[in-house]
Structures are given as C-alpha cells and as structure tokens.
C-alpha cells in the first residue's frame, strides 16, 4: 500500500472516530468503492491480534472493521478501549447483527463513560423499550423526549409506545420519524414489523424492501423479508434475501437454516409442478376421440382402427392413417388440426408426452386393535421426520400426533394450501412403515 493511500486511510479513520456520522458514511461508501475496501483490508490484514495492540491502535482497527461491516469482529477491538465513540460503533455493530441485548449493554457503557452522548442515550432508550422495559427507556430518554423534531427521538417514543402495547401510537411515532428522516432504518423496520404482525403482508414487504435499500442492510430486515416471501411461496425472493445475509455472515445459523428450508421448498415446488403437469398430460391422453367434432368418415375410420383416445391416436403415423381405406388427406388434416390445438402430433411416443406413473405403495394390514398401532398413533408428528413443506402443512392443520394426521383423508390433505402429490406420497410412505394409513 502506498504512503498516500495509508495517509488517506488514517485520516478517514480519524474522522470516523471523531464522528459516528462519518463512520456510517464510510461504511456506506465501502459497499461500492473497491479501492476503499482494499485499503482497509490491507490495514486490518497486516495487523497483530487485538490483545497485542495498544488502545489507540485498537480504536483504529475497531473503526476499520466497522466500516468494512465486519460486525462480529468490532467488539474484540472496541472492548480494549475506553473511548465512548468506539463503543458506540460497537453497539451499532451488535444492533446490525440483531443482538439487541448486547447492543443495549454496550450503549449503556457509552452513556456511563460520557453522559452527554445523546446518540448512545437515544439508542439505549429505544433498545430498553424493545426489550420490554419502557420505564427504564423513559428514564434514559429524559428531557430529550420533548425534542419531537428529531427522527431518533420519535423512534424511541414509538418503541416505548410499542412496549406499552399502544400500537396505534407506536405507528404514528414511527411515521412521524419517517417524515423527519425517510431513511430512518429503525422506524422503517418497526413499522414494517407492525404491519407484518397485523397480517398486512403487502405493506410490510414494501417497507422491508425500502429499508433493505439503505446499505449496509441489517440482518433482521432480510430475515423477516425472507420469511414473508416464503409465506407467499415466492421462494426465489426468499432465497435471495437469505443469500444476502450469508454473503456477509457465512455462518449465520438462522440464515443458513432458512436457506436450506427455502431451497427444499423450491425443489418440492418443481417436483410437484412436474407431477401436476404429468397428471394433466395423462388426462389429456385419456381424452376419448368421441369428445371431438370429427367428420363421420374420420370417426368411422378411427373406430375401425381401434383408436379410441388421443393417446392411441398420437402413436399412429401419417402413413399408417393414409394407408387405411377411405382415409384421405382431408381426414388427415382434420386430425392434425385437433392434435396441434392440444400441443400434440402424429408419430409421438407416449414417453415424449409424460413420464410413467409412480406406483402407490401398498400399506401393511395392521389389526385395528393392535397395541403397536395405538402406540404409533400417539407418537408426535415430528417422529415422522417430514419435509419442510409437509411439516408446515401439519402446523396449518393443527396436527400434533400421528393419530391426528390419520383422521384426515387424502382428498382433504390435497385441499390444504401448498400440500401436493409429493407431500401425499411422502406421508403414505412414512405411515406405511408404521403399518398405518390415512382415513378413507
């Protein structure tokens, strides 16, 4: 790294340590400016461990890791300092990681070191409220509560109202905060969360999407957004939200779990779509020739050739049909028009149209009064180790034990939202291994 770049980085870090607004600005810039990221990474990569640093170097490296969005690393350096500005950056890092209790603890340390640090006090007040301690939040807010021209004050007041279950007032405060600062992430998130809880998914998604555009995006925004997209079966969008978290925090446990579930659901959707398409094709091929308006000559010729369905018809070639007595070009064109309208043609093999049906497993015949059967019926549904989609359907139906599941018929299950042929096949198989079956 050249001397000029090193000086620029040092000056930038000095500015970040003097003003958290500068630190946040650099953090946003680092998302898109490769040169800034490269210089910062060289600085932190060349550094000794935090334990081997003096306080001033630890402060600088805490700021560098904050700007790089290495939020899990900031605390290791920040805790070696007594600089309330560095502690404030550490508190923000914990907040971005959705570790509210730890963030509240760090902001409390900021206030203990510097009681006049209004930014830390406002953060502390909001977090105390969201952690269920509105009285302590009011105490932390103090006389600042009167400054309702500040978005951060309005946000803290909204959090207090929310903690006191005054959700209407909370929404009013968050909306007022956004009037003061349209990019106040906390207000966007809490307002989105209120809509989420009330079932207004469209409003919640719009607000979460608005919040995620403010870089770098907080983890809790992406988690909640992904879950909402999953509920709407927009699994590709859910996966994109979770992958955004994993790009920054590759080992984030919830994001990794949710990503696995989403990928499983995507796979199952594809499988079930294929099965539904296959079933439609089967029905199409079983369609009787008598369902179509054919000329008498064509109908009689097909009947004499023992062609009774579309599946029979597509297996014949043009030459075969034309070789039959009284079957001419007019009849051939008539047939081709009918097949073409259905996406079919003469000379097709059935394998080109559909895959073979999967056999339905045969369930063992277990006596109704079997002790083993009774024991199996009382097992928790989790013992079946069902797929993600099937498990979600069990929750939706209120199924807690295997006996609850057996009370449902196949047709009833298939009427359940998101429950398809793949899920039904899975349940048949799992119950069959226990000698059980669904209700008839």
Description of the molecule:
- Helix content is 68%, strand content 0%.
- The protein has 440 residues and is mainly α.
- It folds into four domains: 3-193, Serine Threonine Protein Phosphatase 5, Tetratricopeptide repeat, CATH 1.25.40; 194-273, Alpha Horseshoe (Serine Threonine Protein Phosphatase 5, Tetratricopeptide repeat), CATH 1.25.40.10; 286-353, DNA polymerase, domain 1; 371-433, DNA polymerase, domain 1 (Orthogonal Bundle), CATH 1.10.150.
- The longest helix is centred in the middle third of the chain and has 33 residues, at 253-285.
- The model is unreliable at 1-7, 270-276 and 355-368 (pLDDT under 50).
Could you give the order of the helices and strands? HHHHHHHHHHHHHHHHHHHHHHHHHH
Radius of gyration: 32 Å
CATH architecture of the largest domain: Alpha Horseshoe
Record field, number of beta strands:
0
Secondary structure tally, helices? 26
Query: What's the rounded overall pLDDT mean?
Result: 83
**Largest β sheet strand count, sense and barrel closure:** none
Q: How much beta, percentage-wise?
A: under 5%
Secondary structure: helix percent: 55-70%
CATH class of the largest domain: Mainly Alpha
Which structural class do the helices and strands define? mainly alpha
Shape: elongated
* CATH homology group of the largest domain: Tetratricopeptide repeat domain
> Do you know the CATH topology of the largest domain?
Serine Threonine Protein Phosphatase 5, Tetratricopeptide repeat
Q: What count of domains describes the coordinates?
A: 4
Query: What distance separates the N and C termini?
Result: 75 Å
Please mark out the parts with pLDDT under 50 across 5 or more consecutive residues, or reply none: 1-7, 270-276, 355-368
């Amino acid at each position: 790294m050249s001397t000029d770049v090193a000086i620029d980085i040092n000056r930038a870090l000095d500015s970040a340590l003097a003003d958290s607004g500068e630190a946040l600005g650099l953090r946003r810039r680092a998302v898109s400016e490769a040169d800034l990221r490269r210089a910062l990474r060289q600085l932190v990569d060349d550094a000794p461990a935090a334990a081997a640093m003096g306080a001033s170097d630890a402060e600088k490296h805490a700021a560098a890791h904050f700007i790089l969005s290495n939020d899990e690393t900031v605390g290791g350096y920040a805790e070696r300092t007594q600089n309330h500005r560095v502690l404030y950056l550490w508190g923000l890092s914990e907040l971005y990681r959705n570790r509210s209790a730890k963030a509240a603890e760090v902001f409390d340390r900021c206030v203990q070191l510097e009681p006049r640090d209004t930014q830390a006090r406002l953060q502390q007040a909001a977090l105390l409220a969201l952690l269920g301690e509105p009285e302590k939040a009011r105490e932390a807010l103090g006389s600042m509560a009167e400054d309702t021209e500040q978005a951060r004050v309005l946000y803290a007041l909204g959090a207090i109202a929310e903690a006191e279950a005054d959700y209407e007032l909370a929404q009013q405060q968050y909306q007022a905060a956004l009037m003061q600062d349209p990019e106040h992430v906390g207000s966007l998130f809490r307002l989105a969360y209120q809509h989420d809880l009330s079932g207004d998914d469209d409003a919640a998604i719009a607000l979460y999407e608005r919040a995620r555009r403010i870089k770098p995006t907080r983890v809790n925004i992406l988690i909640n957004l992904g879950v909402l997209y999953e509920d709407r079966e927009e699994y590709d969008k859910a996966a994109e939200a979770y992958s955004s978290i994993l790009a920054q925090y590759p080992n984030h446990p919830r994001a990794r779990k949710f990503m696995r579930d989403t990928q499983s659901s995507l796979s199952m959707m594809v499988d079930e779509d294929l099965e539904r398409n296959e079933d439609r094709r089967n029905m199409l091929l079983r369609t009787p020739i008598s369902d179509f308006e054919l000329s008498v000559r064509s109908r009689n010729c097909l009947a004499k050739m023992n062609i009774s369905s579309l599946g029979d018809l597509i297996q014949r070639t043009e030459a075969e049909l034309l070789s039959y007595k009284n079957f001419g070009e007019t009849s051939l064109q008539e047939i081709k028009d009918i097949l073409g309208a259905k996406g079919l043609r003469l000379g097709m093999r059935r394998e080109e149209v559909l895959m073979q049906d999967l056999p339905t497993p045969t369930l063992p015949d277990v006596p109704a009064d079997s002790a083993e059967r009774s024991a199996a019926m009382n097992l928790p549904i989790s013992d079946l180790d069902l797929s993600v989609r099937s498990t979600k359907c069990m929750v939706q139906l209120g199924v807690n034990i295997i006996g609850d599941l057996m009370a449902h018929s196949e047709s009833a299950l298939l009427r359940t939202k998101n429950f398809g042929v793949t899920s039904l096949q899975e349940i048949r198989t799992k119950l069959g291994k226990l000698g059980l079956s669904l209700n008839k």
